[in-house]
Amino acid sequence: MPEILSSLATGFATALAPVNLLCGFIGCLLGTAIGVLPGIGPALTIALLLPITAKVDPTGALIMFAGIYYGAQFGGSTTSILLNAPGESASMVTALEGNSMARNGRAGPALATAAIGSFVAGTIATVLLTLFAPVIADFALRFGPAEYFAILVLAFTTVSAVLGSSMLRGLASLGLGLTIGLIGLDSLSGVARYTWGIPELIDGIEVVLVAVGLFAVGEALYDVLYQGEETGSRHRLTSIWMTRADWKRSIPAWLRGTLIGFPFGSIPAGGAEIPTFLSYSAERKLSKHPQEFAANQGEGAIEGVAGPEAANNASATGSLIPLLTLGIPTSATAAILLAAFQNYNLQPGPLLFQTSGELVWALVASLYIGNTILLILNLPLVGIWVKLLRIPRPYLNAGILVFATIGVYGMRQSSFDLLLMLAIGWLGVLMRRLDFPIAPVIVGMLLGPMAEKQLRNALSISQGDWLVFVTQPISAALLALTLLILIVPPLLHARGIRLQGQD
């Protein structure tokens, strides 16, 4: 414990440096604005900024990215409550009760409980991250190639199963990402593969290029083709102050949401959508005022906003644990953050706390600072974020395309990269149209080469014996868990259909 506190104090000294503090403030401000704008998420924003910040100091850039990540979780609740238009997918649940409260003149308390709940959950989750991340990193040092391959397979399966409308579509997207990740030079033999004689593909396809193409270009093109200009009714803001009864009902919901969200973020389960729905379900069951819930034709229950928002932010913080300690992203934004680390030749994993301890602890300290900045921003400036929604969608989409083109061309000054980005953008449109999740593509690209390397190392050590993956206790347990994840949900679904048929 004293060693952790000493490291954290050093991190605060670095994070409070004027340049890093400014980066954190810009990240929080930009992230909140991005969260407010429907359809524009933190993954897209960080992907767009990756090429531009490539030559910036890694500590400042990563602190800014963390601010964007956190800020988007805060900002996403604003449009959910005011316009019933979630800026982030994890804010969908907030819209259920929050918008009902806003329509009935209680937008202020709804926005306040969302902002304060995010602060409370984010701070508690950051304390847990501070205490447990080094412990998990030390434990992860015991992992060999077989264990790492098994946990990567588990990550593939869980992320792909959760991020999408069906497991099959998620695994198909993952397969596409794995295929793209194989293009280029073989990391062990140095032989070019799957390049089809195109010289520009020998070095492989940049993750940043694919991320910008799928998220930014794909989203803009899809919006132009299928969504058009969206409109919504705006509600007059009431006082931001919560009553004593609101506080009494919100505090337990914040704590429950934190306890539900943090563990889900800490395991390779993918995204904050599941814990927010679980938190909402728990609040409906435990509430002493069930008649107030929108589903029961009520005017909106404040705990239905407080719990899911806390779960959302706790999950976002928890997802940094597998990212920093194991190098495994559990969401689209975490996958882009992993690409940001790799941009600076940093590989998240057990050794990161030893090789780049100062940077990691500055990042952790910046989360404490960012939570405070975001609370100060979100309570008094809600009206400003709502005005951002008045930007016409055509102008917004045009700006995204221009920004994406400049960023990708700036990486290698290659016209081929621009054509590839546009092709990948149209692929993103097709995936959205057919309801295929995009995040598993990035996860497959990032983790595929790592899994291949660990697989080949494990087989090399065992002299080609595939039983090495089932004779090692940890890897065997992880593979068994992966098998259960693949088999149990379809069986339960089939059983449910059979029982409905009998009825």
UniProtKB/TrEMBL annotation:
It comes from the Bacteria. The keyword Disulfide bond does not apply. Residues 21-442 form the DUF112 domain. Keywords: Membrane, Transmembrane, Transmembrane helix. Coiled coil: none annotated. The chain crosses the membrane at residues 34-54, 110-136, 148-168, 175-196, 208-226, 320-341, 361-382, 394-412, 466-488. Pfam families: TctA. This is Putative tricarboxylic transport membrane protein. It comes from Azotobacter chroococcum.
